[in-house]
Structure formats: structure tokens, C-alpha cells
Amino acid sequence: MTVSEIRGHHPILTPKAMGEVDRAAIQSGIDGYRLMLIAGAAISACVLEHYPEATGAIVLCGPGNNGGDGYVAARGLAEAGMPVRLYSSVDPERLKGDAATARDDWQGPIHSLADLDWRDSEIVIDALFGAGLDRPVEGAVAEAMMTVVSSELPVVAADLPSGVSGRTGEVQGVALSAEHTVTFATYKPGHFLVPGADYCGDVHLIDIGIPQREIDAHDQNLWLNTPEIWSDRIPEPKLSGHKYSKGHLGVFSGAFSHTGAARLAAHSALRAGAGLVTVLAPASAIASNAAHLTAIMLRNVSSDEDLDALLQDQRMNGFVLGPGFGVGEKTCGFARTIISTDRALVLDADGLTSFKDNAEDLFSAIADGAAPVILTPHAGEFSRLFPDLAADTELSKVDRARMAADRSGAVVLYKGADTVIAAPDGRAVINVNAPPWLATAGSGDCLAGIIGALLVQHVPAFEAAAIAAYMHGEAGMELGEGLTADDLADGILSPSVLFE
């Protein structure tokens, strides 16, 4: 989906919560049919704007208010001079309330969905189910949807493409793939969570007149990750500042042949504004790291004793542990030692996998410690730390991230095309500015370094993870397709420059 133009503070509501908002708005005295008229007009306007050459519109209407939106859109297109054929998935006489009013205001014939046909150069309006569907599509409706899929006609969806769960983004058996989705009042998780995000095309958020107070009253602490969420937390350079006031980050390196990941993280951290960055390497990796480092410092940390000595320097106030470091008890021990201090920790890659058989030990250490901890799992690493959450198909990715944050006591940055960042207090954001070409080796190491840089600059953990994910995506967008992690580390801008 295209999100490059999305700006502002955008709460995301589940379909259930959005239904409560609708009911509350109507109970407050707002005319429900007026809301439907605005929604349907927005759908027809989208069609006329983006498909002026279409020879006609096929409007597919379902049994609820989503279908009512379709009737209103059909009337608007017909009044604009576009030929319209309207198909209903149910007996039109079964419609109730505002949907029935919309049906009565439609002056054209209503065909059965079983009689669906199509012609080249037509446009399809999908008003079958919208965001509320949370069960598999079956029978004649599924067959009609497959007919639309095989036609390859462009689709404009009302609220959400039919067959995509608005709560989880999962496809319910079969789904229509839209070029444009017109949604109302707030975004829903299914617009951004994969695979649903791939079915939405360009998402247009329309204000249909629901008061903001009703949306705020049903806020679910879930937002789109945009600068408006955390702009007041962006670290600003001060004239009186010096390198230590901008934080000192330590990045642990793996052995001789596993040093590149740490250097990517370290370089990214320096670019992201950390005042000093030191690669902490075992004796075997000192020479290989020294050959590649200039502005980044280097120190031998091979043993528990070396780490204890390092921690005597209070100026080193944050660490990245995991990229290329190796899986094992040494990693676990280093993590527990750091967590027991007041130093911030980004636990990534091997740092996460090392706890796959004793995750509760990690969570207990976090609970007993005072320092902020950020866990950055991709799907595989998440399933190692939280196997029960990963296996529960009823949960959305947002649900999983929130439950993982609550269980672990850490901020969880659950990576992917639909990265979700969740805090133990229930706050969560979905990050959507990352281009697909960020899926390249070393990209996650760069992200870990950015997070570490923000933590040592005293950005709170949740905001540090959210800002870093956004910075990571912006760098990827700026560099373009074909980037490597080396390019990415060089292309990161400090947040004070990026968001000036």
C-alpha cells in the first residue's frame, strides 16, 4: 500500500471498536444515514477520480451497512453518468436500517450475485463485507469473488477488501485485491498487517463526520507510527553539549569471522547521533575489527571479568548485544549482567535465540532490573521466545507483540514488513514506511544500532524503538531498491536532521 503521504496522529481501531464508535455517534444524535451518504459519496468520488476512462461500474453489495455504502456509491456513479450494474449477495428485502434506506434510494435494478458478469474496461466496487468479517468466505459469494479475481478488473474496496480480516489482516479463505481502499473515521489493523496490507492498494482515510471525542473515547492505544507520536522525544543537539552528553554505546562483536554485523550496528549508531560508539570484541576479533574502524572505538571484552571492568565506566550507558555474537550461555550471561545494571540494552539476533530454552530467566532478569530493554525479534526469533503466542492463530500480530511486551517487561519491536512496536503498558504502533528492499542481510543490525543510539541519548524505550523503525524506513526509501546494509548504515540521518 502507499503510505508516503500519511501524516498526523492516527489511532487504529479494531472493527469491533469502530462499531462501538459508530453506535455511540448515532446515539449522540448523529444521523446514521447521513454518515452512510458521505461514505458512499467518497467511494464514488474515488472511482471517478482514478478511473475516468472506465466504461461502467460493477457494484457488489453485501448484507450490512457496508452494502449500504455500495448502494449509495452506485447511485452517485449513475448520477454522474457512469453505467452501473449492482449485484447483491443477499435478498435485498433482508436489508434493515440505513442499508434498507440506501437500497430504497437506488433506482436501478438489483441483480443476484449468482448472475455476476463483467466486461473489459469496467471497474468493480467491493462493498460485500468490509472490515468486520472474521470468518472464512464460502459458497456462492466466494465463487463470485473468484470470478472478480480472474477478471483482473480493478477493484475499489469499501472500508477493507472483502475476505481480509480487519482485526488481524489474515485472508479468510479468499479475498479481493483492491487498487484503492476507501475507509472511514479511523484505520483498522487489517490495512497495515500482512498479508492484508498487500490487498488494500492505496488506502484513503475519509472523515465522514464522526466526532473525534467518540474516537478518543474508544482509543485502544494503537497508532500508526508517524512523527506526531514521538516528535517531542527527538534528541536535539545543544550548543553546550559534548560527545559524552550524546551517549556512549557499546556494541558487542562476535568472533574473528563474525564481526560485520556488529560494525553495521556500530556505524548506524554513530550516524544516528550517539556521541561515542565502541565495538566490544573478543581477543580473536580485535585485529579484524581494527582493520575496518576509524571513528568507532574498539575494546577487548572477552570474559565476564572484562565486562565487569567495562561496567565500571558509567559513561557507557547503553549496549547492543546479539548481532553476530553467537548463541550460548556466554550471551545469556552478558545480557543478565547488563540488565542488572542501570544500562539500556538492545537484545537482538543471537541475543534473543540464546534464551530460546530459558526465556523466563530473561524475563525475570528484566523484571528485577531497572534499565530499559528492547527486544527486536523477527518472526522466527519471536517463535523461539514466545512459542505459544506465535502458534495462536486467533491472535493478530499486534496482539502477539502486546502480550510479549507484557510478559517480558521489555519493549518488543516485532520486525517485518508490518513491524509492530509494543510497550509493557499496552501502547503499540504499526510501522508502515519500510520499503520491501529493506529485506536484505544486515538491515536488522543497522536497526539495532539506531535504537541503541537513541537509548543512550536518553530517549524512552518505546519512543526509541518507534523512532528507530521510522528512521530505518526513511533511509531505505531514500536509498532505493538494490540497497545493501552498507549503504543503509551510510544513509542514516540523525533524527534532528531528518525531522527538522
TrEMBL record:
Domain of life, per lineage: Bacteria
Catalytic activity: (6R)-NADPHX = (6S)-NADPHX; (6R)-NADHX = (6S)-NADHX; (6S)-NADPHX + ADP = AMP + phosphate + NADPH + H(+); (6S)-NADHX + ADP = AMP + phosphate + NADH + H(+)
UniProt xrefs under Pfam families: Carb_kinase (PF01256), YjeF_N (PF03853)
Binding of AMP, residues: 415-419, 444
Binding positions for K(+) per the UniProt entry: 66, 126, 162
InterPro entries noted in UniProt: CARKD, Nnr, Ribokinase-like, YjeF_N_dom, YjeF_N_dom_sf
Residues that hold (6S)-NADPHX according to the record: 65-69, 130-136, 159, 261, 324, 378, 445
Domain YjeF N-terminal, first and last residues per copy: 18-216
Keywords: ATP-binding, Isomerase, Lyase, Metal-binding, Multifunctional enzyme, NAD, NADP, Nucleotide-binding, Potassium
Cofactor: K(+); Mg(2+)
Residue ranges occupied by any YjeF C-terminal domain in the UniProt entry: 226-499
Entry EC number(s): 4.2.1.136, 5.1.99.6
Gene3D superfamilies attached to this UniProt entry: 3.40.1190.20, YjeF N-terminal domain
Record-linked PROSITE patterns: YJEF_C_3, YJEF_N
Biological role stated in the UniProt entry: Bifunctional enzyme that catalyzes the epimerization of the S- and R-forms of NAD(P)HX and the dehydration of the S-form of NAD(P)HX at the expense of ADP, which is converted to AMP. This allows the repair of both epimers of NAD(P)HX, a damaged form of NAD(P)H that is a result of enzymatic or heat-dependent hydration.
PANTHER family linked to this entry: ATP-DEPENDENT (S)-NAD(P)H-HYDRATE DEHYDRATASE, ATP-DEPENDENT (S)-NAD(P)H-HYDRATE DEHYDRATASE FAMILY MEMBER
Subunit structure: Homotetramer.
Family, as annotated: In the C-terminal section; belongs to the NnrD/CARKD family.
Protein name: Bifunctional NAD(P)H-hydrate repair enzyme
Species of provenance: Hoeflea poritis
Lineage: Bacteria, Pseudomonadati, Pseudomonadota, Alphaproteobacteria, Hyphomicrobiales
Gene that encodes it: nnrD
